[in-house]
Amino acid sequence: MSxxxxxxxxxxxxxxxxxxxxxxxxxxRYVHKKxxxxxxxxxxxxxxxxxxxxxxxxxxxxxxxxAGQERFQSLGPAFFRGADSCVLVYDVxxxxxxxxxQMWRDEFIKQTDIPYPDKFPFVVIGNKIDLDGGAxxxxxxxxxxxxxxxxxxxxxxVPYFETSAKENxxxxxxxxxxxxxxLFLGCPQDIYYESMAGSLTEIVEPQNRGCAC
Length: 213
Description:
There is one protein chain. The chain is α/β, with parallel strands linked by helices and 213 residues long. It has a single domain, classed as Rossmann fold (3-Layer(aba) Sandwich). Helices cover 27% and strands 27% of the residues. It has six helices and seven strands; from the N terminus they run βαββαβααβαβαβ. A hairpin with a 2-residue loop joins strand 2 and strand 3. The radius of gyration is 17 Å and the shape is globular. The termini are far apart.
């Protein structure tokens, strides 16, 4: 079987948020379809990739999972450089993590020196909606949507999703929106491979979209 060049688009996605909000769990659920009950803090930053197809385009998502501890924030410039999208994650059961979103957004903008932040694709995720059947919730959807509306985005609003990495609720939908935003609103990099003709690539079709605020 002959080799043929295949064009892929590389998208760098940065995941930010306080420690313990479930950033790693979301990434592991999306990429590996699994959930680990044991919490292990990310040290520094790490990335994992998943290949998908969007509207006929082959896309390699390079998802950077970053530490939420303040002592690792100085690593930002090296890891944030070249980002096509930024995902801000908080725990709906932890008001403090929600209040930190502005700090994480400001830090990302500062470290990357984005000239027009309102034109950069941010996505907000409220995670752990499964906890205690919602009894432990401290941040209501309305409040989160109001915050998303206040910071604006390239489409007028910043997309907002509520997820459960444990129960696999809205995780694929959220990451599809993230990939789409990075592809069409960011500055993706086209890369080329020599690949076997007829090789398999996962095809991801749009699903029910999350609630954009």
